[in-house]
Each structure stands twice: as C-alpha cells, then as structure tokens.
Description:
The structure holds three protein chains of three kinds.
Chain A: H1 8-11, H2 14-47, H3 51-65, H4 69-83, H5 90-115, H6 119-127, H7 132-162, H8 174-185, H9 188-220
Chain B: E1 10-19, E2 22-32, E3 37-42, H1 48-55, E4 63-68, E5 71-72, E6 75-78, E7 84-87, H2 90-99, E8 100-103, H3 115-126, H4 131-144, H5 160-173, E9 178-182, H6 190-205, E10 210-213, H7 217-223, E11 226-231, E12 234-239, H8 241-246, H9 251-258
Parallel strand pairs in B: 3-10, 3-11, 8-9, 9-10
Antiparallel strand pairs in B: 1-2, 1-4, 4-5, 6-7, 11-12
Chain C: H1 7-11, H2 13-46, H3 50-65, H4 68-83, H5 89-114, H6 118-126, H7 131-161, H8 173-184, H9 187-219
Helix pairs in contact in C: 2-3, 2-5, 2-8, 3-5, 4-5, 5-7, 6-7, 7-9, 8-9
Amino acid sequence: MNYRWDFASVFSNTDALLAGLSGTLRLFAICLVAGLTLGLVVGLGRYSKRKLLYVPASIFVEFFRNTPVLVQILWFYFALPILVPFEVSPLLAATLGISLNSAAFSAEIFRGGIQSIDRGQWEGARAIGMSGGQALRRVILPQALRRMLPPLTNRGIEIFKMSTLASAVAYVELLQQGKLIASLNFNPIEAYTVVALIFFVVLFPLVQATYALERKLRRAD
Amino acid sequence: MTTAPDSCVMRVTGLRKRFDDNEVLKGIDLDVQPGDRIAILGASGSGKSTFLRCLNFMEQPTTGRVQLHGQFIGAERTRRDGTTDNVYNEAELTRVRQRVGMVFQQFNLFPHMTAIGNVMEGLRTVQGKGRDEAAALALKQLARVGLAEKAEAYPSRLSGGQKQRVAIARALAMEPDLLLFDEPTSALDPELVGEVLRVIRALAEEGRTMLLVTHELGFAYHFANRILFLADGVILEQGTPDEVLKNPREARTKAFLAGHNEFSF
Amino acid sequence: MYAWDFAPVLANSGMLAQGLINTLKITGTALAFGVPLGLVLALLRLSPRRYLAWPAGFVIEFFRTTPPLVQLFWFFFALPILIKVEMTPFAAAALTFSIQSAAFFAEVFRGGIVSIDRGQWEAGRAIGMTHSQALQRIVLPQAVKRMIPAFMERSIELMKTTTLVATVSYADLLFQANELAQKTFRPLEVFTATALIYFFFIFGASLLAHRLERRLAVSGEGTVH
C-alpha cells in the first residue's frame, strides 16, 4: 500500500469534530430519554388486558419495529412538514424517527420484563391493599429492572449508532462532520477512519460493560 | 347501602364463582363473627382456596353478596339477557384489602426488600406513614412472630418457616379485622411447619378473627371453633371440631378424613 | 385539510418496484456472502490458536460496534482511493453489508456451537474423529437447527439496515422514493407509501419467521438466540 496517510489534515479540524461529537451526544441523550420513557408507557399498554390500550400499543410496536429507521427519519423530514404548520428541523426529524423506533423496541423489553415477574408478587402487593399502580412502582418494576438492564443498555448502544443516520438530513453530528472534513480537505480515508475510530473507542468499553453486566446478572439468578 | 349495625365481621350470602364454563363455587353462605377461628377443609378441586380468595376479592365472586361490617362490597348488575352478576370497583377492593389480610401458600415476600422492609411496605405506601413510624410498628410485628433479629435480612437468606412468619407479620402490620390463611404450611418442609403453626395459634389466642384453609387436620382441631368441609363448591358439612372431625355425618366427609388419618387429636 | 393524492405514486409504481427489487438484490447478496463469511469468522474466533482467534475477534467486535453508515461511507469513499479501484455504489454496499452481517452472524454461529453439550464433542473424539470431523458431522448439524430463529431475525434486521445504501445513491426502494418525491412534489404520499411497502414486506417476513420457529420448536429441542 503506497498511499501516504495524512491525519494532520483531520486533526487540524478538531473543533469541527468536537461540534459533531456534541451533536451526536445531544441527539443520543434526547432519543434515549424519549425512547425509553415512551417505551415504558407503550410496554405497559401492551401488558394491559384492556383492548383499548393493547391494540393501539401493538399497532405502534409492530409498525415502528418493522420499518427501517432511515425511512422514518426521511418521512418526518419530508412528509410531516406538509401536515403540520411548523418547521421540522433535522434534529426534530431525527429525534422523532429514532425515538419512536427505540420506543417500539423498548416497549417489548419492558413488557417482557414485567411479565417475567412471578404472579405471586402482584398478589402479595394487592393483599396489603396496594393499587395496581403502587404494586407496579414499588414491587414489580424494581425487580423487573434488573432483568431488563442488559437489553435496555443494548438499546442505548443502538441509539448511539443510529445517530449517524441523522447525517442523511444534514444534522450536525459526528459523521456529518466527517463528510464535511472529507469534502473540504479531500481526505476521505483519514476523515472516515478517524470517525470510525472515535465511535469504536466510545462504544467498545460500553459494549464490554454490557457483556459483563449480563454475565453478572445471569450468575446472580 | 348499609344495614343496621351488625356484630358480624363478614357475611357471605349465596356466593357463586364461575371461571368461563366451569362453576367452581355453587352457592356458599357464611357468617363470620368477631373472634371466630374457622378452618376450611376439603379435597383439591373442592373450591376451598377459591372461596378464601373471594373474601379479599383476589377472585371476584360472579354472583352472591359479601358484606364487610354490614357494608355490601361491589354492586349487582343486570345484564342484557336478564341474568345478574357482580361488578367491582378497584378502588373499593383496595380499601377492603386493607381490612382483610391474607397469608399465601407461596409467601409472596418481596425479594428486593429486607424483612422489615416487607412488613413496612404497606404502612408506608398504602397508609402513608412516615419511615420512622412505620419502622417502629414493623419491628413490633416482627418481634411478635419471633423474628426481630432478622429484620435486616433479605428473604433469600431466610428459611421457609421464617419467610412465612415475615409474611404473617406483613399482614398483621395492616391491623386487619379479618385474617385469611391460604394453606400457609403446605409449601414448607415438615420440620418448619411447627414454627408457623405456633404463631397462628398465638394469634388465635389473642382473639383474632381468622379463616384458615389447611390440610393440617390435627392443628385445625385445636385451633378452630368452627370447621367447614367443602366439596364440589358447596359447604357439605359444618360444625364444631368435635362434630366434623370426630363425628362426621356425611359420607364424603368420612371418606376425606379416612384418607388423612396421619393426624392426631 | 390536506388533500391526499396517491395517483402520482401509483403512476410511478414501476420506479418503486425497481427500487424494491434492488433492495432485495443487495440484501440477498449481503446474505449470500455474509453467512459463509460469518461461519468462517466464528470458527476462527473459536480456534484455540490465538493468532487466529484474536484478529477474528477484533474484526467481529469492530464491525458490530461501529455504526453501519460509517462503515458504508468508508467503503464507498475511502477504500477506492486506498486500493485504487473504482467502486460502484452496489459494490461498496455489498462489501459493507457482507462483512457487517458476517460479524453478527459470527456471533450467532458461535452461540449455537457453544450451546451444544460438551458430551457431543467428546463422543465424537472418543470414536477417533478429528476436531473438524466432529464439528462437521456432529456439532454443526445440531447447532444449525437451534440457530435458525436467530438467523431469521438477523436477516430481517439486514433488510432494514440496507436502506442505508440510499445515502450512497444506490437505487434501492428508499432512494427511488426520494427521487420520486422530488419528481412529483408529493413527498407525503410517496414516503407514506414507501413506509407501508417496507412494513408489509418486513412484517410479513417476520410472521413467516415466527411460524417457522414454532414449527421447529414443536419438532425438536430448544433454540438459541
């Protein structure tokens, strides 16, 4: 390989990269919170026996799990503005697409976790006069959360990776900045290699931590 | 809808329970007076657990009325085809369960809380008491069942008998008017049964109103002032322990007792 | 109230159909290369020889951890310069998703092989089989059956992931949708129709996968995920 690697041209643009990284983190944080919160609500809806809650929740889950995220992001960016009177920014489109998708996957994680708790726990809670909501909050969820932690952290990592899709609507995140640097400095190899390495360096420890967490929880059970 | 003040703690009239096509309880009447200690016996499938669970509405009676201190629980509804059944309001049932306590065969302790945490939980979350007040009350109940020194232990560290005693303390902490025991010793190793029965007997001697579904016939004889024998969803025979256990009238009762002849009076 | 009009979408359904075919083409290609490559990676990873296991492990972890779009951009923009070979969008996409899916399939393979009871290996060795004979004749056939649900899940995932190729101008369904939206000035109808097409395809595939899974579960042992 006689290509002359030149990383200097990338590192002279560190502020662009940092702007990208902060955009990535911002998008990640918003989608993580929105996705998991909505996921819990929808998950409870899926767990409910009332058709009024179960059916819409199921439609939501099946639709957003079985459509590609990029399609959703582009829909929100190009199609939604026609229906609503306000501007849809790249951030809003990406947030909507990624959050709703993550909510659908998280809903199933929450439902599975809650369902896996022995029925007797519900009975013990109700027998001392707890309402369903109190039982869920004080007895069921604390126990379910332990089991749901590995798949939920996996979801978090997926959300982080999905943030790159926001570059398709020109949101300023890390990959978008990589594109920018590459086009300005004509060094796509170094630019994209650096971007890939940054993602790897950030995510690899988190992925390993998830494996460790999974192993620890499996042993404790 | 209240009737005139009644000394009766709980009155059950015409209670029926159907699961889909299967009618498990076919009309049960019962008056529970304060201080009653009622043992409920029967073969599996007789409906005895279902009946007990109807009394704190863990199962909801299909038809028939239940009164707690003279107050009817739930409401009757006439359906389009002319039949009536019962509807229950979750908020009302939650209040009923603060007055009617239950101890389960499988204990159902909360594994993520300590023993004292389990006992305190109802006081804090349901009754809204502060942490210190709840802790003090909980510790008293744990001492009552002989487990004060295990207050900070998690259920996974307790034996079956200890777990069940904590479960009893948890039910007692709510200061219920009526205590229901659903086969409290059936899931215990034989050598652990005694410690639980001793606690139940102590409660009986305090004059608490209790209903006990059990297979421990010897214990039932000494504990109860009334015995109900259930078969096929109805009370086949009832009376004092001497009447039902020593001189049963019905053939089915005799057959049941014959099959359980390892007990001693 | 916006007046929906799907006529332009229906009029250009050929364009979308071509896109769908290309989507299936890229997904199929990635699967065709990814599965065998995944098996190779898995076997390397399981090898007791460190100089084989470590690089394989690194490749697997790298391609599972970095975002697929970053990988695609690298293969499309960076690699051609490095190896001085022109790359069509299809080639870059095929290369990216073959390796990316191989990394995920490698973990499925590894999980399946590892889940087979040690006793099976020992029985094979005990009658004089070499390690690879035992693998081929005894372990893999049993492992494959357990891995089928995870495989199908991963394949359906792949179909969703390949939409990324639209960003490097490969004419898959999403790319065609974008072109059509610009051509007809009806992004709402076009993208809604496209989302629905994806949904029916992927949901349908998912249902088939579940039915197959149930039939397998009935006929034999458990499965690995």
